[in-house]
Design brief:
The structure holds two protein chains of two kinds.
Chain A lengths: L3 E4 L2 E4 L5 E7 L4 E9 L5 E8 L5 E2 L8 E7 L2 E6 L8 E9 L7 E2 L3 E5 L1
Parallel strand pairs in A: 2-11
Antiparallel strand pairs in A: 1-3, 3-8, 4-5, 4-9, 5-6, 7-8, 9-10, 9-11
Chain B lengths: L2 E4 L4 E4 L4 E3 L1 E4 L5 E7 L5 E7 L5 E4 L2 E4 L9 E3 L8 E8 L9 E2 L3 E6 L1
Parallel strand pairs in B: 2-12
Antiparallel strand pairs in B: 1-4, 3-9, 5-6, 5-10, 7-8, 8-9, 10-11, 10-12
Classes of the chains: A mainly beta, B mainly beta.
Chain lengths: ~120, ~110
C-alpha cells in the first residue's frame, strides 16, 4: 500500500528554537497533504491543508506564522514550528492524498515534539 | 458543529472475544464515516468506511454499519486476535466538495490478551 514517511519520529528542543518536521509520500504523488495535531487523550485536530505549489489553508485558531507549512513538491511537505514553547509540545501527524483522489488519505506515523 | 464521540479505552479482551467499540457522531447533512487503526509505531490506516446510510463497511473481519437514525457507526469483530491490539479511531468527513477533511474521535486503545 501507499506509504507516508514522517521524520523525525520524536524531537526534543529548547524553548525559543524552531523545529522542522518532514512528511514524504514514498510511492505516490500527493497533490494535497494535511497536518494534524493530537493532544493526549484527545482527537486529532486538523491544523492545515496544503496543496503543492500554493499556500496552505489553515483551520480557524491555528497561527500561520507559528506553524509554517511548505509543500514544495508532490512528495514532500514540511511543518516548521517557529519559536517553539512548551505549550507547542504535542503529537503532530501528517497525511497525504494521492493526486486526483479526494476520497482517501494515507497517514504518517507521527512526530512527538517536546519543548523544554 | 460536526463531532465524533467514541468510547474511552482502554478495552482489554481475551483472544476470540467479541469486540464492540461505540462511535456516535453529530453532523449536518450526510457525512462519510470511517474507522482507522493505528498499530504501535505506525501511521493511521484505513480499516473501513461507509458513505451513505445503511452502508456496511467491512475489512479483516471488522464491520461497521452507518446508522442514520441513531447517528452511530459502531465497530464490531466477532473474534479478536492478539494482532488486533491497536488504537482505533472513528472519523467523519462532512459532505463538502473537494478533498475530504476528517473529524476524528479521541481513539480507543484495544488490548487483546492471549
Amino acid at each position: 500500500g501507499a506509504v507516508v514517511s514522517q521524520h523525525p519520529s520524536w524531537v526534543i528542543c529548547k524553548s525559543g528554537t524552531s523545529v522542522k518536521i518532514e512528511c514524504r509520500s514514498l510511492d505516490f504523488q500527493a497533490t494535497t497533504m494535511f497536518w494534524y495535531r493530537q493532544f493526549p487523550k484527545q482527537s486529532l485536530m486538523l491544523m492545515a491543508t496544503s496543496n503543492e505549489g500554493s499556500k496552505a489553508t489553515y483551520e480557524q485558531g491555528v497561527e500561520k506564522d507559528k506553524f509554517l507549512i511548505n509543500h514544495a513538491s508532490l512528495t514532500l511537505s514540511t511543518l516548521t514550528v517557529t519559536s517553539a514553547h512548551p505549550e507547542d509540545s504535542s503529537f503532530y501527524i501528517c497525511s497525504a492524498a494521492p493526486g486526483g483522489r479526494v476520497d482517501i488519505q494515507y497517514f504518517g506515523a507521527g512526530t512527538r515534539l517536546s519543548v523544554l | 458543529g460536526n463531532s465524533v464521540t467514541q468510547m474511552e479505552g482502554p478495552v482489554t479482551l481475551s483472544e476470540e472475544a467479541f469486540l464492540t467499540i461505540n462511535c456516535t457522531y453529530t453532523a449536518t447533512g450526510y457525512p462519510s464515516l470511517f474507522w482507522y487503526v493505528q498499530y504501535p509505531g505506525e501511521g493511521l490506516q484505513l480499516l473501513l468506511k461507509a458513505t451513505k446510510a445503511d452502508d456496511k463497511g467491512s475489512n479483516k473481519g471488522f464491520e461497521a454499519t452507518y446508522r442514520k437514525e441513531t447517528t452511530s457507526f459502531h465497530l464490531e469483530k466477532g473474534s479478536v486476535q492478539v494482532s488486533d491490539s491497536a488504537v482505533y479511531f472513528c472519523a467523519l468527513s462532512p459532505p463538502t466538495s473537494g478533498t475530504y477533511k476528517y473529524i476524528f474521535g479521541t481513539g480507543t486503545r484495544l488490548k487483546v490478551l492471549a
